[in-house]
Design brief:
This protein is an alpha+beta fold and 177 residues long. The chain has helices at residues 3-36, 39-42, 69-92, 96-119, 140-158; strands at 44-48, 51-58, 122-130, 133-134. Strands 1-2-3-4 form a four-stranded antiparallel beta sheet. Strand 1 (44-48) and strand 2 form a beta hairpin. The protein starts with a helix and ends in a 19-residue tail after the last helix.
């Protein structure tokens, strides 16, 4: 195995491990919220002056867009297709940061798909607020997806321009310099 193929394999492995870690943490947190803390019965529990655990069953996507029983199967199918596409990207990426970001997105998306299949909705519970100003309620899978997207943006902004290493195109005109 060449050095480049070993590097690709280790990036792939780390990306896959990131996906599995995010999935495990997400599912454990949702199980604890539902069955340990019993948040569906309690509704909301203050944790810090700027953080509550508040039970929200999200039947749609971000901000409840596409909420409804008719969209459930569509949302599951779209998420599975996205996971497949992101997995291909993970397999091909030469960047460790991109591999970790993709792994976080894949794990988070898979966690939300599992919730949607198991409960008919995504379990959201993290309620960050400042006084009466509340951000949307989310879960750890959502946070991992956001972090993964941020990693991909950072990687694209600060990575070397791979096309910049190619030789300049041949000149069309044949004039001497």
């Amino acid at each position: 195995m060449t050095g480049a193929s070993r590097g690709n394999a280790s990036r792939r492995t780390l990306g896959a491990l990131m996906a599995l870690a995010v999935l495990a943490i997400d599912q454990a947190s949702k199980a604890w919220i539902l069955y340990g803390l019993d948040l569906p019965r309690k509704g909301s529990v203050p944790v810090l002056p700027v953080l509550n655990f508040t039970m929200v069953w999200n039947h749609g996507v971000t901000f409840g867009i596409l909420a409804g029983d008719d969209a459930r199967l569509l949302l599951i199918a779209v998420a599975i297709a996205a996971i497949a596409g992101l997995s291909v990207w993970l397999w091909r990426t030469p960047s460790l940061l991109a591999a970790l970001g993709l792994g976080a997105i894949i794990g988070g998306a898979a966690g939300n798909v599992i919730s949607r299949i198991a409960y008919g909705a995504v379990v959201d519970f993290v309620d960050v607020h400042l006084g009466n100003l509340h951000w949307y309620v989310f879960n750890l899978a959502d946070a991992a997806i956001d972090g993964g997207v941020a990693a991909l943006i950072i990687e694209s902004l600060f990575s070397r321009d791979r096309a910049g290493h190619l030789p300049p195109p041949a000149r069309e005109d044949k004039e001497a310099p």
